[in-house]
Amino acid sequence: ATDFTWTYDTTAPTVSSITFADAALKAGDTSLVTIVFSEAVTAFANADLTIVSGTMTDVSSADSGVTWTSTFTPTVDTEDDTNVLIVGAVYTDIAGNAASAGLTSGNYAVETLLPTLTIGIASNNADDELAKSGDIITLTITASESVTGLVCTIDAEATNMGGSGTSWTSALTLSGDETEQATVFSCASHTDAAGNVGVADTS
User: In the chain, count of helices (H) and strands (E)?
Assistant: First the structure.
């Protein structure tokens, strides 16, 4: 008789590792997620995952089921620095052995909440809603969170910036060449600690 071989497998598959390429996500970021098993598995899908503060593309494998990857996209307007991805235990190996346990990833942070500004405007004129040549128009700015790099213009002119963190000022001494109009301003450059850039505020 011709010899033959067979495989006898009673070992349950396990999750070896869960890795986020980027564990500190800001607005506009995505991260590659890599899930590695102790052996090739089947019947593994996103339904086996507990995903928080974001969404993931369908997991897929390029090495017959040992390593699975997906792209994580964080939820917008979210500020949460304590998140984990949980892999359940519904998958099986090629022989049909059920998983013995899942695995919880290390922590990843999601900071997609853009900083916003609250701005007041007044002049040092006797009527603080009016200004003439030589008067100073001042913006008083409160940021929703600590920001850096704040730059404002008044009547499209550079201003003297003061303050830091969440409390700022922007002042312009009128030289007389400004357009006679309801004063326009723009505070366009400000970044929070996570690197999120705030939207220009002209309100």
Answer: 0, 18
Tell me the per-residue pLDDT of 127-160, one tens digit each, with 9 for 90 and over. 999 999 999 999 999 999 999 999 999 999 999 9
Name 64's Cβ contacts closer than 8 Å, sequence gap at least 6: 40
Give the position of tokens 């999750």.
15
Please report the sign of the dihedral spanned by the C-alpha atoms of residue 97, residue 56, residue 80, residue 24. positive
**56: buried, middle or exposed (CB in 10 Å: 19+, 13-18, 0-12)?**
middle
**For residue 1, what pLDDT is reported?**
63
Global pTM reads 0.84
Distance separating alpha carbons of residues 167 and 130, to the nearest angstrom: 24
